[in-house]
Amino acid sequence: MPQKISFTSSALLACLLLLVGCSKEVTDVSQQFPALNPARTDINAGTWKTILLTAPDEVAVAAPAAPTGPDYTAQINEIKSVQAAMKANDKEALQYWSAGAVLRWNELTRQLVAKYNLPPVNNADGLYPAPDANNPLAYPYFPFSNPPYAARAYAYISAATYDALVACYHYKKLYNRAAPYNVNTTVQALVPTSDLPSFPSEDATVAGVMWEMMKLLFPGEQAFVQNKINEHLQSRLASGANVRSDLDAGYALGRAVALKFVARARADRAGQAAGSLLIEDGMRQATIARGEVPWISQESPKRPGMLMHFGRVRTWNFDSATLVAIRPPAPPSTNSPQFKQELEEIYNFAKNPSREQIRIAQFWADGVGTYTPPGHWNAIACEDFVSMQLSEVRWARNLALLNTAMMDAAIACWDAKYTYFNPRPFQMDNRIKTVVGLPNFPSYTSGHSTFSGSAATVLSYLNSKRQSDYEAMAQEASVSRMYGAIHYRSDCEQGLVCGNRVGGFSVERGKADGAGL
Amino acid sequence: MQHIRMGILCLLLCATHSLQAQMDIDALFMGKGQLCTGPMYMHNSWKNYWEGTLKRDNPNLGTVTTQSISLMGMYGIRKNVAVFYNLPYVITNPSAGQWKGQRGFQDGSLWLKYKPVTKQLGKTQLSVIGLLGVSTPLSNYSKDMLPFSIGMGSTNGHARLMVDVIRNKWFATASMTYVLRSNARLDRTAYYTTQMHYSNEVAMPDVTQWNLRLGYRTNKMVAEAVLDNMTTQGGFDMTRNNMPFISNRMNATRVGVHFKQEEVGLKPLTVLAGGNYTIAGRNMGQSTTLYAGLAWIFQFGKNNNTKK
User: What number of other Cβ atoms are within 10 A of residue A147's Cβ?
Assistant: First the structure.
């Protein structure tokens, strides 16, 4: 018996020690990204076709002082003093930001989207308060960064960053002032070096864009954003890649270019996209008049449909006539045998989902409190762009093509949703229980499918050797909504088709912008 | 010496998402060579919950019910050394809304219980007991559907120190527990807590517990009142109108009662029952738990437990 005791106790002790030994550290993909070391500088990016800027020099940037003379020497000495005073957290910040400005700000945007992607709770009277952009820190916080809002945020930030960097590279080539680590050999280069001119700083240009765009999109986060900007710019001084005047010029340029995008955003009709209960009721009556079962919110209390006029928001890569032309065909009538068959299919998925189906549903769910499906595709894209060793301007261009496509996808999908006003499976058969959240807007077409179709099309153009992977991912994201029991097959298939077409318009832009591949 | 056959010890107290299938929280042991094993049914439900520190209800969930059926057992290696196990099957369900309840084998646990010190001080007997346990998921359930996920998905180590005093059949038992939790894995590759994480792994904060029991016990029965607390050492609060997440700071203080009676009709048969109610919490439901179980005592080897 004593042996038995000692065996049992040593087995238990061993288990405990194993647990003690295993740390709570989590391997975070984003922390593993290496310092940006572009395969090409893209020094001629100043000639690439911009999105809103009429010309790369639309915003003037004055010529910098030559890298000689006392003013420049003072700036070199600033770098040296910053490098001499670096502490552990400064080194950490330098390493973090060295992965790339466009990448890191895309990640920070995803973080803010996730933080704000929470539907407001209802008031005591059963009505839902609307977030107020002018009072963002009072509950309900502004914004509620749901998928269309998020798609729009990613698109504006990416598009503005792209235009600003095209202008930045235009001036880099024009003024051709070398980076401090190339001018003065006593400056340490703490990031991979390059012969790309450093004036204006591409990092500061991105930071300037972010300051203006974040003020608009996440107005309650200015302190957070300012902190990140300070850390970012300081890391560029510390790296030896930029002097103060590189940063100042880039930052001012980025802000000025961003203001063009802010003006577009203020007039793109997103501000009127929320709609009203009256508008929703009109849509419901029109659906009944067509002989169809209209969508009804399944939340308690009933919540107005999400962004019922988002389909009217201004698109990026095609015009409003095209939007109507590519609108998915009407879904199967709610009275038709096909509809009943599709409903039955979802009932069967919902009845007893396999663990693999639940895994797929949750992998792609990207629901409340997450960076949304467009954020997921940004994460997928960024991991690939890291391995492609892109220049900052090409990073921005790729993300602009991706994210304008996904905002267009949101518009096209929301246009279809509120045109057809189709009910969700659970509304038609309340035995259909879901393993992901039930979105509070009409069913047809699937947003995930539309986003994913557009993203896969754009990414396949940008990184053709992974085309089949992207297509498989989009397919899985699409079908995940059937496994989740919140969409019919028609929603998913037509969503993918429409998304692919929407993505095609962005690919056309990419083929014509002069950047090549 | 009193004879020691005391029947089953196990008590599934922490029912809500069972951070641990909390076996043996009392001071009792089996006789040497005795196995006491049987099923336990538990019913736990809540309508109100704490979203961070804000108490609310949610008409999109209604009342959330968790039921479990467990096979529990304890084997006396010596009169002061025992091992025991718990194998629970868990079913969750909301009464409203469209969420699908989940079911499956939750976390199995295995414990070792050892009483190194028993001191007689006049009419009072004092015991010190140490327990070590491990618990780990028995199935690959989804951890990302709280409050419907059947568990948290971490493998846990439990270390518990217990002191028991009994005088004229009235007793008090107090214990402190530290629960060490491994990382858990989600089905997705990124998640937000108070920042983004690009991983499927979630660092689970450890948990401490204390438990106080006062009551009356004889050789054949126990009746006791219980006050219990679990406190998560870290973790974050649910944000407004968000879903719960496995690494939330989940705290609860509960009051309850527990009864056990041996030799019910048949000599080897023990019945036990009890319940508890959450009086304070954080990121958890304000739950009411009721449970009842049966156990059968088997004797292996020579029965020398009834002698003085």
Answer: 31
Residues near A17 by Cβ (< 8 Å), separated by ≥ 6? none
Alpha carbon separation from B302 to B33, B74, B262, B298, B306 (Å, rounded): 8, 18, 21, 11, 11
Q: Which helix (H) or strand (E) holds A456?
A: helix A447-462
Chain A residues with beta carbon closer than 8 angstroms to that of B187: 358-359, 362-363
Q: Which residues of chain B neighbour A111 with C-beta distances below 8 Å?
A: 192, 195-196
What are the φ/ψ torsions at residue A32 (nearest 5 degrees)? -90, -5
Distance from CA of B158 to the nearest CA of A (A): 8
Q: Please check whether the domain covering A34-62+77-266 is classified as CATH 3.20.20.300.
A: no
Domains contained in chain B, CATH given: 16-299 (2.40.160.40)
Tell me the chain B residues in contact with residue A376 when contact means C-beta distances shorter than 8 Å: 190
Task: Report the Cα–Cα distance between both ends of chain A, in Å, rounded.
Answer: 73
Residues in chain A: 517
Q: Which fold has domain A297-512?
A: Vanadium-containing Chloroperoxidase; domain 2 (1.10.606)
Mutate to test the interface with B, among A4, A6, A13, A16 (most CBs of B within 10 A): A16
Q: Take residue A405 and report the two structure tokens written for it.
A: 């496509």
Q: At what angle do helices A222-239 and A202-217 cross, to 10 degrees?
A: 180
Span(s) in chain A for CATH 1.10.606.20: 34-62+77-266, 297-512
Report the 10 Å Cβ neighbour count for A73.
12
Nearest CA in chain B to A13: B132
pLDDT by residue for chain B (308 residues), tens digit each?
333 333 323 333 333 333 333 345 778 888 899 999 999 999 999 999 999 999 999 999 999 999 999 999 999 999 999 999 999 999 999 999 999 999 999 999 999 999 999 999 999 999 999 999 999 999 999 999 999 999 999 999 999 999 999 999 999 999 999 999 999 999 999 999 999 999 999 999 999 999 999 999 999 999 999 999 999 999 999 999 999 999 999 999 999 999 999 999 999 999 999 999 999 999 999 999 999 999 999 998 776 554 33
